What we know:
The longest helix is centred in the middle third of the chain and has 29 residues, at 114-142. The model is unreliable at 315-319 (pLDDT under 50). This protein has helices at residues 21-32, 54-65, 80-91, 114-142, 153-157, 163-183, 208-211, 220-226, 266-271, 273-276, 288-299, and strands spanning 12-15, 36-40, 69-73, 96-99, 145-150, 188-195, 237-241, 244-248. It has 2 domains: 12-248, Rossmann fold; 250-319, Helix Hairpins, CATH 1.10.287. It has an 8-stranded mixed β-sheet with strand order 3-2-1-4-5-6-7-8, with helices on both faces. It is of the alpha/beta class. Helix content is 39%, strand content 13%. It is built from 11 helices and 8 strands. Residues 16-17, 19-23, 40-44, 46, 48, 55, 76-77, 100-103, 123, 127, 150, 152, 195-197, 199-202 line the site of 1,4-dihydronicotinamide adenine dinucleotide (NAI).
Amino acid sequence: MAGPELRYDGQTVVVTGAGGGLGREYAVFFGSRGANVVVNDLGGSFKGEGKGSKAADVVVDEIKAAGGKAVANYDSVENGDAIIKTAIDAFGRVDVLVNNAGILRDVSFKNMKQADWDLIYRVHVYGAYKCARAAWPYWRKQKYGRLISTASVAGLFGSFGQTNYSAAKLALVGFTETLAKEGFKYNILCNVIAPIAASRMTETVMPPDVLEHLHPKWVVPLVGVLTHKSSTETGSIYEVGGGHIAKLRWERAKGALLKTDDTLTPGAIAAKWKDVVNFAEPEHPQGPANAMELLETAAQLPPSAPAEKLDFKDKVVLI
Ligand code: NAI
């Protein structure tokens, strides 16, 4: 069952990196559902080399040919002000920002060049910041905004050869969760997706029969839900791709509580190691408040029996 058709009539949606892959799919979707679309793309290679206007122009033409409204922008996301200005100049407003533009510079940490680190940071983190920063005053003023940040399972779990990319992608989680808190009272909802999809970025690392099931269009509907005016969801992370959509959250083990005095030694922690890693009855913290309660409880504990000898044998539970 397809469900109700969500529409975005009269809204302006900015999609960065919309000249191909996932970004193109978002742009075409929003264009087909009544939105004014800013199709941003620098037009370079997947490693971030070169630039050109063709990638964005092709998508704009496609949206217009189907009866939609779209304009192109060819700036790097590092120049987010110019991208948002394109939205304001063309359509007079900005409602949704999908921070999607991205590049890869996969290389082992040992062999990574400074430029590989710097460029990944500049496109993913600085670029997302600049675009969101430029949209923010409009969103606050109109008391409405929707932000999607694009993380990756590489950032959430680590991935060989991707220290630069993983660091940048997880940075976007902290960035977005904080914006969700700051934007909430202005009806600015901010969420993170960790997509998986066939694109020029993934075609070099996944076999064709797997890629076949991972068309980027299967990521779009979740982005449609999260950016719709009816959504109330904010500050969350979702894995999405190939028909699988799932929210992710933090989990805290039972944990050890020790009195903060001279008895809090490495040996005392080793003695409580089973509690430190005990996920049998986990908590799902959503902010620092709950952690502060735990710290207060620890401060009021009676002193622990000294246990200086470090002995992890039989105490470490593998999970
Ligand atoms: P893609 O390479 O097909 O598309 C990325 C687009 O961003 C390209 O059109 C490129 O020209 C544009 N771009 C790159 N640097 C830019 C800049 N500085 N300014 C403006 N545009 C720029 O890649 P794909 O797969 O569609 O990736 C989209 C996003 O999803 C990226 O942020 C990527 O890191 C993320 N992602 C993708 C996954 C996948 O399985 N495809 C997995 C996890 C994350």
